[in-house]
Amino acid sequence: MVMKFTNGLGADLTIDAAGFASTCENAVHTCRRGGRMIQVGLPIGGRPPQIPMGVVAGKELEIIGSHGFAASDLPNLLNFVRSGKLQVRKLVENEVSLREGVEALMAMDKYSPLGITVITRFDDTSRL
User: Fold this and answer.
1) pTM
2) Domain boundaries along the sequence of the chain
3) Architecture of domain 1-68
4) pLDDT score of 45
């Protein structure tokens, strides 16, 4: 999808925050030449990712690890949201129920949506 939307060039910046080997690998593959990939947290789902170092070197990519942010930064982040400088709503692609959220999480091992999927309905009384 990313390559299609960028006419085969790739993205300037890719971020994997899902934690699966496939999403980590896809983040590397969809970077443009000279791009940057950020790994947020640890890829812990299933097999470890296989980073294609030939692609990293050939495309001259920069890979950055991020384990999170300091709790003391949270008030500043929330102020950006409150003031409208950070429009979180624009990042949300899909709102789902708790049951659909479980299914979406499991599907991320095969593909990753462009936007964020958010669980907004918790009243699903059926069993998971």
Assistant:
1) 0.61
2) 1-68, 71-120
3) 3-Layer(aba) Sandwich (3.40)
4) 64
